[in-house]
Write a structure and sequence with these properties.
Blueprint (H helix, E strand, L loop, with lengths): L2 E8 L5 H9 L3 E5 L6 E9 L2 E7 L11 H13 L3 E7 L3 H14 L3 E6 L1 H6 L6 H8 L3 E3 L8 H12 L14 H18 L5 H9 L3 H9 L6 H10 L6
Parallel strand pairs: 1-4, 1-5, 5-6, 6-7
Antiparallel strand pairs: 2-3, 3-4
Length: 243
């Protein structure tokens, strides 16, 4: 049986873990991320004859290094490279939740956006144009209600399309100021030379420009051969507020 890995990401209180539990049921176990006190949950589910390993990432508001939760979620997406990152959003708080979704899209296009709590949104008179969102973000966007178990098949169909490569993503690329884009352009060849093509070089360059020492530490721990030239180049730019 073909097997894929799906990482569940989302802000706290979006129903991410409710969806995770709905899909995995009793086929799950918990533990801790390596070197951290942050709890992780893993499980399995099947869809259309394919098996999926589900990883419930810590609930976070961003993928920056402001907490152990954020570092654990960030490092999993970058280094473990799941086949699909499923970003769960609260339909009643899209503006706040989309911040995390955009950060994930900067790292990987193998993403499905899941808008949960649609029952609550409808009760509040909120209407969401899913096709427009999908076109703008460049990845599938599906509306569900995990607690009412609606939209789940449609969601899993899109997860399957991204996992097996049927869907060709064109994720939104966020433009920054001229100064930041210039810094990214200067760092990009160094990052690509050190890491190769398997890692999100633009996003890593962006975080290094922002002085993200935690990311550098994680890269070193992964033994990716980060060259001293990158650190020197970053220090030459100084920490730039990218976000």
């Amino acid at each position: 049986m073909k097997s894929y890995t799906v990482a569940f990401a989302g802000n706290p209180n979006t129903g991410k873990s409710t969806l995770f539990n709905l899909l995995t049921g009793m086929r799950q176990h918990t533990g801790n991320w390596a070197g951290k006190t942050v709890i992780t949950a893993e499980g399995t589910f099947t869809h259309n004859g394919k098996e999926y390993r589900a990883v419930d990432l810590p609930g976070t508001y961003s993928l920056y290094s402001n907490s152990a939760d954020e570092e654990a979620a960030r490092d999993y997406i970058i280094f473990e490279k799941p086949d699909v990152t499923l970003v769960v959003l609260d339909a009643t708080s899209l503006e706040r939740n989309l911040n995390l979704a955009l950060q994930v899209l900067e790292i990987t296009g193998r993403t499905v956006i899941c808008i949960n709590l649609m029952d609550e949104a409808r009760r509040l008179g909120i209407d969401i144009d899913l096709k427009a969102m999908s076109k703008r973000l460049g990845v599938p966007v599906i509306a569900i209600s995990a607690r009412n178990r609606t939209g789940i098949k449609e969601l899993l169909d899109q997860v399957e399309r991204v996992a097996d490569g049927t869907f060709a993503a064109e994720p939104l690329r966020i433009p920054y100021s001229e100064e930041i884009e210039r810094g990214i352009a200067e760092l990009l060849p160094l990052v690509e030379q050190s890491l190769g093509a398997d890692y999100p070089a633009r996003w890593i360059a962006l975080r290094l420009l922002d002085g993200d020492e935690s990311l550098l530490a994680s890269l070193r721990r992964e033994s990716l051969g980060i060259k001293s030239t990158i650190s020197k180049e970053v220090s030459g730019h100084g920490a730039t507020a990218c976000h």
